[in-house]
Design goal:
The protein has helices at residues 4-9, 14-34, 40-61, 68-75, 79-87, 101-111, 134-141, 148-157, 183-208, 230-255, and strands at 125-126, 161-164, 170-173. The chain is mostly helical. It has 3 domains: 12-95; 97-173, Arc Repressor Mutant, subunit A (Orthogonal Bundle); 226-257 and 265-274, no CATH class. α3 crosses α4 and α6 crosses α7 (134-141). The longest helix has 26 residues, at 183-208. The protein is extended.
Length: 284
């Protein structure tokens, strides 16, 4: 067994320990926003591309040639994966049917001749059985690990299919467009990601900027709030933020140019209050 000295030699640096402690909090909230709307394999494909692209930019900033070997070392990815990402020109587009299993199934149903009728339209399929059936469709497009009942229930609730009852129960395709969340929730999710990206851009800027060039990035909190006083606290915070938001809007209007012109930049201010939602997950 390695001795204490050897163990210390391979211990994580303090910076890495700090990131490893907080990163799961960020990832957990990210997953809560996207789970059910985009699949894990699709996220991994996006992450690989972004990782290689950002590593490429970092090496260039550091004055290092972004060779495939250097990129593999920085990202921890195989050079073959790096090569494929570079060949794709860092393409971040995903085909809709690859983002989530339900969408893949609907796409197969609509396009694969094996599941079409004599008019080249999606056939009404018997739920079970070999050959042209909903069960076979699930096996081909989703896999063996998810039951037919689970997939059918999900597609029924989303309004994509309906069950036609009879001597043999069958499934009819109603809509090929799968939408796991409402447009309102989709808009709120977009806003959430946009705001999160803005906060992170502030943090990234401050990490690399000289002290006199850093922008405000502050937070204040307490771990000793009486639960019975939380509603009153929220009320007071809302009033405070509403007052500051109006002042912020006035400041933006003061500096805003009357028309859009080349060379202008985007700036903004953000306000938010957090707490009470997942108190057990916060790091003290």
């Amino acid at each position: 067994m390695p001795g204490a000295a050897m163990q210390d030699k391979f211990a994580l640096p303090e910076e890495a320990k700090s990131i490893a402690k907080v990163l799961p909090l960020v990832l957990r909230r990210l997953v809560r926003l996207i789970i059910g709307t985009i699949s894990y394999p699709a996220i991994i494909e996006l992450l690989k591309t972004v990782y290689v692209e950002e590593a490429n930019k970092k090496l260039i900033r550091d004055g290092t040639a972004p060779t495939k070997s250097a990129l593999a070392l920085v990202t921890g990815l195989d050079t073959r994966v790096v090569t494929n990402v570079i060949k794709s020109d860092f393409n971040l587009e995903l085909e809709p049917e690859k983002t989530i299993p339900e969408a893949a199934l609907l796409d197969t149903w609509a396009k694969d001749p094996s599941f079409q009728d004599a008019n080249n339209k999606p056939a009404i399929l018997p739920i079970e059985g070999r050959g042209r059936s909903f069960q076979s469709l699930v096996l081909r497009s989703v896999g063996r690990n998810i039951t037919v009942k689970t997939v059918l229930s999900k597609l029924e609730s989303s309004g994509n299919v309906r069950v036609v009852h009879g001597n043999i129960d069958r499934v009819e395709l109603i809509s090929v467009f799968y939408s796991p969340i409402s447009s309102d929730l989709a808009n709120l999710t977009d806003i959430a990601f946009l705001e999160a990206s803005r906060i992170l851009s502030t943090v990234i800027h401050n990490i690399s900027a000289e002290e006199n060039e850093r922008v405000p990035q502050q937070g204040r909190w307490t771990y000793r709030l009486d639960q019975n006083k939380y509603k009153e606290f929220r009320k007071r915070v809302r009033k405070l933020l509403e007052k500051q938001i109006k002042e912020g809007e006035s400041l933006l209007e003061e500096f805003e140019e009357p028309t859009k012109q080349p060379g202008q930049i985007t700036v903004g201010i953000g306000w938010y209050q957090w707490g009470d939602h997942e108190p057990d997950e916060e790091v003290e």
